[in-house]
């Protein structure tokens, strides 16, 4: 009996037992939806982490400094300190940019007398070197921020493609938007980023000096050792990933000489941070994956019970087929194929139900799916799991059917 005939007979048998097939696959479908959703969401989170790291040139280091308010001075850590660091280590460090999170201090921005809040919009203060560090950023119209914009505290900005097209009608250059009561003229529009893990398409970039005027710098709501502190953040471009360790040491030496003893600084390689986040993600999703697989096992047990019941009901059919020359192997193949067909049917239904759930979850969490939609790998994994469960839990009923003696089966039937 060829495979085509096996599957045809299997589907005919399942169609004769529609309600039983539906009941036996219900828990299995729930398990598949759980497995598929967990795998896809985990894949989306991993994609996001990889894309975030890929947004930067290799070897980027993120530095966060906590300076206690009781000892804080604006002269504690200056741009001159960073520039001296670059001059002293040209083979290690090529650029440094502050990152001032203006969105934490304002409600959003105003354009055409309408307020656009911060729910999906980032407003950040940087310098001209930021463009060298974040290689995913490309200017489509106008220009990027320059040193003169930072030094002269020019009220200008560069905006993402979504803000330019969806809010400002695609003709943003030269137009103004208002942030914290100050008008900023648009001098540049960023090219659209297809896989935008860090929401650059919805970002407004201001000169760091202008951002400091808005935030007031020393009122960031952070704490260090239980005392209010000023939090500052910097992105440091390292010449290559191989130089990250040496660059880390040079930055630490500079910070130790500039900061007070009571201050603290975290120095993190973004590549290392991405690996740590991936490992942490695996630990978080492990219990969910285990629970989903347990549901699959329960569903597989339901398929096995159904197949055992079918064997009992079809003993006469089995006996007649054996009387006409069907071998034990033929009988075993047919019932095993029926079990696989049930699990594959559950797989199709499970994927069909899981896809909209996955898109909703990923949209809420702003997680990137594969370029073509649902990632291909989880689809393959889910299909293989389905076939595996069908074969494992169908082996016993198929073996039981194959062992029936023709005469006994006919008389019993």
Structure commentary:
The protein has 413 residues and is of the alpha+beta class. The mean pLDDT is 76. 54% of the residues lie in helices and 18% in strands. The chain contains 13 helices and 14 strands. β12 (222-224) and β13 form a beta hairpin. The longest helix is centred in the last third of the chain and has 44 residues, at 270-313. The strands form three sheets. Strands 3, 6, 7, 8, 9, 10 and 11 form a seven-stranded mixed β-sheet that branches. Strands 1, 2, 12, 13 and 14 form a five-stranded antiparallel β-sheet that branches. It has two domains: 3-52 and 284-412, no CATH class; 72-259, no CATH class.
Strand content: 15-25%
Largest sheet: 7 strands, mixed
Number of helices: 13
Q: What is the number of beta strands?
A: 14
The percent of residues in helical segments reads 40-55%
Query: Radius of gyration over alpha carbons?
Result: 31 Å
Please state the overall shape, judged from the principal axes of the Cα atoms. Answer: elongated
The overall number of domains is: 2
Task: State the order of secondary-structure elements, H for helix, E for strand.
Answer: HHEHEEEEEHEHEHEEEHEEHEHHHHH
Given helix and strand content, the structural type is: alpha+beta
- Terminal CA distance: 24 Å
**Unreliable sequence segments:** none
Kindly report the average pLDDT value.
76
Give the assembly state of these chains: single chain
């Amino acid at each position: 009996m060829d495979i085509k005939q096996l599957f045809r007979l299997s589907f005919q048998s399942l169609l004769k037992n529609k309600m039983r097939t539906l009941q036996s696959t219900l828990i299995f479908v729930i398990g598949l939806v759980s497995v598929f959703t967990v795998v896809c969401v985990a894949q989306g989170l991993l994609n996001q982490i990889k894309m975030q790291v890929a947004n930067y040139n290799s070897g980027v280091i993120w530095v966060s400094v906590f300076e206690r308010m009781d000892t804080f001075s604006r002269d504690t850590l200056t741009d001159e300190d960073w520039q001296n660091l670059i001059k002293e280590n040209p083979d290690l460090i090529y650029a440094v940019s502050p990152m001032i999170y203006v969105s934490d201090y304002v409600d959003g921005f105003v354009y055409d007398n309408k307020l656009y809040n911060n729910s999906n919009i980032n407003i950040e203060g940087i310098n001209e070197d930021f463009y060298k560090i974040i290689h995913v950023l490309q200017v489509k119209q106008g220009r990027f921020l320059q040193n003169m914009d930072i030094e002269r505290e020019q009220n200008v900005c560069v905006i993402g493609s979504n803000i330019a097209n969806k809010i400002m009608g695609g003709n943003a250059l030269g137009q103004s938007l208002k942030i914290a009561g100050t008008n900023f003229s648009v001098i540049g529009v960023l090219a659209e980023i297809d896989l935008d893990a860090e929401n650059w398409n919805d970002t407004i970039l201001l000169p760091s000096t202008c951002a400091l005027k808005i935030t007031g710098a020393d009122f960031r709501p952070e704490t260090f050792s239980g005392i209010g502190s000023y939090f500052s953040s910097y992105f440091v471009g390292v010449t290559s990933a191989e130089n990250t360790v040496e660059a880390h040491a040079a930055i630490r030496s500079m910070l130790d000489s500039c900061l007070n003893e009571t201050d603290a600084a975290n120095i993190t390689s973004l590549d290392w941070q991405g690996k740590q986040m991936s490992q942490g993600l695996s630990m978080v999703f492990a219990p969910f994956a285990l629970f989903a697989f347990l549901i699959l096992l329960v569903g597989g047990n339901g398929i096995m019970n159904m197949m055992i019941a079918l064997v009992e009901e079809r003993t006469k059919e089995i006996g007649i087929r054996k009387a006409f020359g069907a071998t034990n192997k033929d009988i075993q193949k047919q019932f095993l194929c029926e079990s696989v067909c049930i699990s594959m049917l559950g797989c199709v239904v499970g994927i069909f139900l899981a896809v909209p759930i996955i898109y909703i979850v990923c949209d809420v969490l702003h997680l990137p799916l594969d370029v073509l939609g649902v990632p291909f790998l989880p689809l393959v994994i889910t299909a293989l799991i389905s076939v595996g469960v069908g074969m494992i839990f169908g082996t016993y009923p198929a073996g039981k059917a194959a062992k029936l003696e023709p005469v006994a089966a006919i008389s019993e039937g």
